[in-house]
Design a protein that fits this description.
- The chain is mostly helical.
- The protein has 2 domains: 4-94; 132-210.
- Helix content is 61%, strand content 0%.
- The chain has 10 helices and no strands.
- The protein has helices at residues 12-32, 37-56, 68-94, 105-120, 147-155, 161-165, 169-178, 185-188, 191-201, 203-210.
- Helix 1 (12-32) runs antiparallel to helix 2, helix 1 (12-32) runs parallel beside helix 3 (68-94) and helix 9 packs across helix 10.
- The chain is rod-shaped and about 150 Å long.
Length: 215
């Protein structure tokens, strides 16, 4: 307590509290208010001087209760920062669940389309990738098929008499369209009729009939 005879003299404690208020103001301005150091320092000096005048001079000698008010005022900006952080938190969770599963359906649809294309190419008569049991018939027995023609027919997938004997008119047209050369020979030389005789009557009977072109 100040003595009665010093009531009209300046109070040193008031200036100390004023300096403390200036430091608190400086911290609030820099940390909460984001002030630069120089403006914050200038304002802090003003606050310290004002508080010192109020508390240190004789009219402020009744008690140092006033510095409490700046401390409470300084606490309010800190509280306002919390809602900002809280508001930012839900945004972080919104972006996570929205990604990947949908594109998985597209490859399945593309894969399903391929077998249809493969079936569309399966036209024409029955064809083989190689002769049965590794041994082809001598297709040159048929009149009109020489070595070059036999090689061409083999390349198309025909190695046996029964394959040619089973050709329909549509099959004949398909083979003729896919032959590089000698087009029209199948019908003109009666390949299908000759092959049917070989399959049904045997090769020897066919050779006898071939002497008179009895197809």
């Amino acid at each position: 307590m100040r003595k009665a005879e010093n009531m009209n003299a300046p109070w040193l404690g008031g200036w100390v509290l004023g300096a403390a208020a200036g430091l608190v103001a400086f911290g609030v301005l820099v940390i909460v208010g984001k002030f630069d150091l120089f403006p914050a320092g200038a304002l802090a000096v003003v606050v310290a001087a004002a508080a010192g005048l109020v508390l240190g001079m004789p009219w402020g000698a009744q008690g140092p209760a006033l510095p409490v008010t700046p401390l409470k005022a300084a606490a309010k900006p800190a509280a306002s920062a919390e809602p900002v952080a809280a508001a930012a938190t839900p945004a972080a969770f919104v972006a996570v669940p929205e990604a990947a599963p949908a594109p998985a359906a597209k490859p399945a649809a593309k894969a399903a389309a391929k077998p249809k294309a493969a079936k569309a190419k399966a036209d024409g008569p029955e064809r083989l990738t190689a002769p049965r049991k590794g041994r082809a018939d001598d297709l040159k027995e048929i009149e009109g098929i020489g070595p070059a023609m036999e090689k061409l027919v083999n390349e198309l997938g025909f190695y046996h008499f029964d394959q040619i004997a089973g050709w329909s008119d549509a099959d004949v047209a398909w083979v003729d369209a896919n032959m590089k050369t000698f087009k029209g020979r199948i019908v003109r030389d009666k390949w299908v009729a000759q092959a049917k005789i070989i399959v049904n009557e045997g090769l020897e009977a066919f050779r006898e009939r071939a002497k008179t072109n009895n197809y």
